[in-house]
Amino acid sequence: MTMTDSFESLLAAPTPDRPLLGLTVLLVEDSRFASEAMRLLCLRSGARIRRADSLAAARKHLRVYRPNVVIVDLGLPDGSGAELIGELDAARPRVDVLLGMSGDSGAESLAREAGADGFIGKPISSLGTFQAAVLGALPPEARPRGLRAGAEDRVSPDPIALQDDFVHVADLLTTETGEGMLDYIAQFLSGVARTAGDGEMEDAARRLAGLRQAGLPYGPEIARIAGLVHGRIEPRKVV
């Protein structure tokens, strides 16, 4: 080992304050707001992070990039995150840590059945909870000693990222007419609203999903959601 190699290994050694130092994370998540929260959690923990917003983008990343940790949202615009979890679990060599993520607690069983090592429920803002999820899935010999127990630090994503998510939904409501896209909009909005603590929006998204599943008329609910979304996009300034 050269002096440079020795120096770099010391730089990458995890510490109690930054227990994920040296790890690289690929986050597969379509919400900008949720992604910003995960970026801050990784940054505070010492991990490097890259993001893919779809299954296709994630597979493209993985052809040239080998992360230590992959965190996959279960609801993505081009399919279920469980598909990617299954592919990564079967791949050899396998990534060190494979985690599913969703705002629906019932999705944990789906993620684990697909091969995930663990599950992160949305919203996630606790540094200690995030670190424990990643460290708990690492092989025992790779877990650093001295992690602060019960770290209470929390992160607050930039509200601009939330605005971006609402603009994205507004665009979908205007340009997309496919029936399947309505199911995606309901799922996406429900997760964003849960992460943002927006009970009114989450209720509207879940109601749309319920009406769709029951085969009942949902036109008024689409109109309600459109109004709520536009009301949350940068309010017009009063002159």
Automatic annotation (TrEMBL):
Keyword Phosphoprotein on entry: yes
Keywords: Phosphoprotein
Superkingdom in the source lineage: Bacteria
SMART domains (UniProt xref): REC (SM00448)
GO terms classed as biological process: phosphorelay signal transduction system
PTM sites of type 4-aspartylphosphate: D73
Residue ranges constituting the Response regulatory domain according to the UniProt record: 24-137
SUPFAM superfamilies assigned: CheY-like
PANTHER family reported in the protein's UniProt record: RESPONSE REGULATORY DOMAIN-CONTAINING PROTEIN, STRESS RESPONSE REGULATOR PROTEIN 1
Identification of the protein by name: Response regulator
